[in-house]
Every structure is written in structure tokens, then in C-alpha cells.
Task: inverse folding
């Protein structure tokens, strides 16, 4: 079974450039999450969607960050303009949102982003 | 207050022995879920085990079990018969209302041969 698919796996770019991270959730999952992992701050939830609708974006650090989910099988996280402090591993995860909270989130392999 | 506290930055265990990774949590919700994830050096996040706040029995999944003590607000992960492949970072996380996971800082486990 295909898991959560993220692309690219690695991204190295210069400060000021636009960065777009992509995610394809597991088919049938209706919740999607974007996380950022750094040594200093650990794993942080940036934003999550239920049924393609953004529910909580309180973790998005600045206006430079934006996320979209145009359909149930695709989401993007965009950083424009990028800065060196955005360097991190970005994870996408998906789960089934139902009447309980028992559904674990399944993570993609992450995108390792380096901003020079 | 921290939602999830993992007090052990690093742990060593001898191969084939059992190890307990500590996790305490803070919540005022009555309904919540506790999760453990494994992150090997390759970086992926692997779901291991889940415990619901209303579950009366401790969760088990193969060599993983969760020692859930609700009154103490602890959800320790027990790995039995440790293997070299268990060497990884382990994260405890809580899900309250709203489908959001909040992670602890993690514990690095090293299994010695």
C-alpha cells in the first residue's frame, strides 16, 4: 500500500527563493498535517486540514509560509521568500478523521530543506 | 506546562533485554489518545502504538507495550527483547480534541550488542 508521498526528498536553495513542498496523502485519509522538525524546537505542527479545509494554522510561523489543499490527494506548503532559519525537515502526515480520535497519523519520509 | 514530557534524553539497553521509555502528559480533557512513534536515523516517522484514555487494558503491539497509568498521567513505552534495529529516537505524543498531535522532545535509544 502506498504511504504518504512527499517531494522533493531534499531541497537546497538560496535565501530569497520560493520553495514549494508537495504531499500526497494516503488514499481515503481525510486529514492532512504539515510538521516541521528542527533540533532546537523538535516537531511542530504548522497547519492541518480536514476534508481539504484548513482547520488550524496557528503553527505557521510567518506570512512567508502558506499551505493549500486543492483536492483530497494533494497539498503544498510554500515558503516565499525563504530564509536560512527555515532550514529543517518538513513532514506531511495523514489520517482518518472520524468520530473518535483513534486514528494514528501516518507520516511521509519528509523533505530535508536547506536554505543557504 | 509541557503537554508531553520525556525526561530521558538518551538510554542504553543491552540487546535482548527490555527497556522502558518514560512519558508523562498534561491534559484537562477526559477523552484523549496517546501515541508512540519511532524515528530511526534514516529520518522517517513510524507509528508504533496507541492508547486511548478510556481503554481499560494496556495496549500491546508485538514487542511494544504501553504502561498506562492514568492517575499518574504517564504512558511509558516498554520494548521487550531489544534488537539492534530498535536503536532510534522515540517520541511520545498526545491527541486531544481536534485531531492535533503534540509531541514530546524524544528519547534516543541505543541498543548495545
Result:
Amino acid at each position: 500500500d502506498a504511504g504518504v508521498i512527499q517531494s522533493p526528498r531534499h531541497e537546497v536553495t538560496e535565501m530569497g527563493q520560493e520553495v514549494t513542498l508537495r504531499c500526497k496523502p494516503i488514499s481515503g485519509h481525510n486529514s492532512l498535517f504539515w510538521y516541521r522538525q528542527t533540533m532546537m524546537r523538535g516537531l511542530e505542527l504548522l497547519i492541518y486540514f480536514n476534508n481539504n479545509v484548513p482547520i488550524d494554522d496557528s503553527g505557521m510561523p510567518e506570512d512567508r509560509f502558506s499551505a493549500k489543499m486543492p483536492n483530497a490527494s494533494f497539498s503544498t506548503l510554500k515558503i516565499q521568500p525563504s530564509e536560512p532559519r527555515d532550514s529543517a525537515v518538513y513532514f506531511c502526515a495523514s489520517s482518518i478523521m472520524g468520530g473518535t480520535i483513534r486514528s494514528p497519523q501516518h507520516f511521509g519520509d519528509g523533505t530535508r530543506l536547506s536554505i543557504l | 506546562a509541557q503537554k508531553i514530557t520525556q525526561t530521558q534524553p538518551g538510554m542504553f539497553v543491552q540487546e535482548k533485554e527490555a527497556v522502558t521509555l518514560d512519558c508523562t502528559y498534561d491534559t484537562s480533557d477526559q477523552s484523549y489518545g496517546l501515541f508512540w512513534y519511532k524515528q530511526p536515523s534514516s529520518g522517517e516517522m513510524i507509528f508504533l502504538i496507541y492508547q486511548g484514555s478510556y481503554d481499560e487494558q494496556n495496549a500491546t503491539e508485538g514487542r511494544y507495550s504501553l504502561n498506562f497509568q492514568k492517575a499518574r498521567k504517564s504512558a511509558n513505552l516498554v520494548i521487550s527483547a531489544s534488537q539492534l534495529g530498535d536503536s532510534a529516537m522515540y517520541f511520545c505524543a498526545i491527541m486531544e480534541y481536534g485531531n492535533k498531535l503534540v509531541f514530546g522532545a524524544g528519547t534516543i535509544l541505543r541498543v548495545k550488542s
About this structure: The longest strand of chain B covers residues 88-95. Chain B has a mean pLDDT of 94. Chain B is about 0% helix and 50% strand. Chain B touches chain A through 25 residues (CB under 8 Å).
